[in-house]
Give the backbone structure.
Amino acid sequence: MRIIAGNFAGRRLHPPRGSAIRPTADRVREAVFSIIGPAVAGAEVLDLFAGTGAMGLEALSRGASRATFVDQSRHAVQLIRLNLELCRVSDQARVIHGSVNQVIRRLAGQQETFDLIFIDPPYGRDFIQQSLALLGQVVRPGTLVVAEHGSRKPLPLQVEEWSQTVERHYGDTTVSFYMSARAR
């Protein structure tokens, strides 16, 4: 597991122990960042169900200004902090331990907003739809949501104010891109 491009290109990240954390494959990450391209530069990033932090770190490597990482696993939080130190970007990041839904509500209460949001929950559950329903509280005009999920369970084309704009399949993994209807 490594950073694909940007300032930290080629840097190997600390991998997770066991199978509780499923990192996004390098080839999927590379494809996602090829699709979103210039949306990363200067972006405020929110990485939900962050795991190793690879998606948010890839965004920081490619020019995002800040990243907030959220995971409810203590192991994941420790891993993200290790990887932030490895890339020497702890000053550009915040790691929050807690339930994604509770953290989104807290961030909304603090009137925080984001330009780019990654959602990569455990496959086979409805966490993405639940998260999308809450994300309207923490977005700016033009916010892009990138949701990674299992290919066996497709996501709806519309969730609350969010419309799916692109969907790509990579074996057992599918990545769906959403834009807010109010952002267009």
Q: What stands out?
A: The first strand starts at residue 44 and ends at 48. DSSP finds five helices and eight strands in the chain. The mean pLDDT is 88. The beta strands are 44-48, 66-71, 93-97, 114-119, 139-150, 158-159, 162-170, 173-180.
